[in-house]
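Retro notes (design track)

What went well: tokenization of the new backbones is finally stable.
What didn't: we kept losing track of which sequence belonged to which structure.
Fix going forward: every design gets posted as structure first, then sequence, in one message. First example under the new rule, 457 residues:
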């Protein structure tokens, strides 16, 4: 369907009936070929991540909060993942409904020029995620088979970049082959880890006082996909399918991945660097880990592909394939100098940016319900009040949970102390910032509507 005032977003299949691939530029047709299994397999694979096995430490020992007891960490994982995956599902709906990618949709929310702000931030976070994915692939591959780390980084970078050239073909490959192998591998590793007699999930103490900080970490992992969900759901045949596939597919597998990670961490005394050691001790552990290592390229694929699509919001006629080649090369170079120790800090900043962004979209959608379709043209009128709502949501998040990023978190902690704010431990930064952003956006959208009515009158 055509977007109001913008480039045409049509649907397409090839003359032979074979689903068409994604066009090189935003001005090309949009194939609507993905069903529930295609999308469900894609999101389920994204939920299983090598980063998740060690990344559950961000839930178990959240930045700026006391370490959690294992029962509290499992509960925080489930609660945070359910909330986060539902947010991802919500963010998939507009793409399926309009055929527009995520950052183009923000033209209707912020205006054409102001949508460049979240687009640039999204490019930065996706390059970060893509870099971390190559790092963890190299870490796992080196442990499993040995060899120089740089060779694994370069190899993973090349494979990632090649996959981005045929994105819909990649999604169909996940459904037909990869998902089955991944399910078998994860089930085998879970059986092996939980059957170890030395496993004691009660060891290590901890408490429930940092529960919502841990849940926020689980939410942050999921919501990092919010600004890319429509890049893939735009190819969904039906809107409800896009929501269900993202919510269920991602939610179930992230919970499984984190719980398996908790077991592995318990066996190595909480040492995140050694999380793969008990998996490799299994009789077929090397095979299972290699399957997961090879599959991890779907994470880096999604990040590189969506980075390119986000750049296209700034330059609609840019060829996505050339952008993917450049971005793939960039994250490969970055991965040669980054360590996994920066991961938890990275999460805290991501959550504060993209959770309130979704809140703004929801608040605006409530007010606009039944109104004309938003203007998705490149030069759509600016809506600075929506940027204000987003900023208020971000500030709310940081005042509740400044995270642990050097300088950034220190500055927000100082502001919080100066204001005399002492958030209770039960307060979730994610939920509060989402609600605040949604309410403020709804109020400011009504102000915009009255201002337009006055001007037109």
């Amino acid at each position: 369907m055509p977007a109001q005032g913008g480039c045409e977003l049509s649907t397409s299949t090839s003359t032979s009936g074979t689903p068409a691939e994604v066009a090189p530029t935003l001005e090309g047709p949009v194939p609507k070929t993905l069903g529930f299994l295609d999308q469900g397999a894609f999101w389920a694979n994204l939920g299983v991540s090598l980063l998740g096995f060690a990344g559950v430490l961000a839930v178990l020992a959240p930045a700026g909060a006391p370490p959690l007891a294992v029962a509290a960490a499992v509960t925080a994982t489930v609660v945070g993942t359910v909330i986060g995956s539902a947010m991802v599902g919500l963010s998939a709906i507009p793409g399926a409904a309009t055929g527009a990618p995520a950052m183009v949709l923000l033209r209707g929310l912020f205006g054409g020029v102001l949508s460049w702000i979240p687009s640039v931030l999204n490019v930065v976070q996706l390059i970060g995620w893509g870099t971390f994915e190559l790092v963890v692939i190299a870490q796992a591959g080196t442990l499993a088979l040995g060899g120089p780390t740089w060779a694994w980084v370069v190899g993973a970078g090349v494979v990632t970049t090649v996959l981005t050239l045929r994105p819909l073909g990649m999604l169909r490959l996940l459904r037909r082959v990869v998902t089955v192998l991944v399910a078998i591998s994860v089930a085998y590793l879970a059986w092996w880890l939980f059957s170890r007699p030395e496993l004691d999930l009660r060891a290590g103490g901890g408490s429930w006082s940092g529960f919502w900080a841990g849940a926020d970490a689980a939410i942050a992992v999921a919501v990092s996909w919010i600004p890319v969900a429509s890049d893939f759901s735009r190819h969904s045949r039906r809107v409800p399918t896009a929501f269900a596939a993202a919510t269920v597919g991602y939610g179930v597998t992230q919970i499984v991945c984190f719980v398996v990670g908790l077991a592995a961490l318990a066996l190595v005394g909480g040492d995140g660097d050694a999380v793969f050691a008990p998996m490799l001790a299994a009789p077929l552990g090397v095979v299972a880990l290699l399957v997961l290592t090879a599959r991890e390229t779907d994470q880096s694929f999604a990040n590189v592909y969506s980075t390119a699509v986000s750049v296209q919001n700034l330059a609609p006629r840019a060829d996505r394939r050339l952008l993917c080649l450049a971005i793939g090369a960039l994250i490969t170079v970055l991965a040669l100098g980054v360590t996994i120790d920066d991961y938890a800090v990275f999460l805290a900043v991501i959550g504060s940016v993209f959770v309130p962004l979704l809140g703004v979209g929801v608040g605006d959608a409530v007010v606009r319900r039944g109104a004309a379709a938003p203007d998705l043209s490149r030069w759509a009128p600016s809506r600075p009040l929506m940027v204000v709502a987003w900023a208020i949501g971000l500030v709310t998040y940081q005042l509740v949970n400044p995270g642990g990023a050097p300088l950034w978190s220190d500055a927000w902690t100082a502001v919080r102390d100066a204001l005399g704010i002492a958030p209770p431990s039960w307060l979730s930064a994610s939920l509060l910032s989402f609600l605040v952003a949604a309410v403020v956006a709804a109020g400011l959208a009504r102000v915009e509507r009255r201002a337009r009515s006055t001007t037109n009158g």
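Added context from the reviewer: The radius of gyration is 22 Å.
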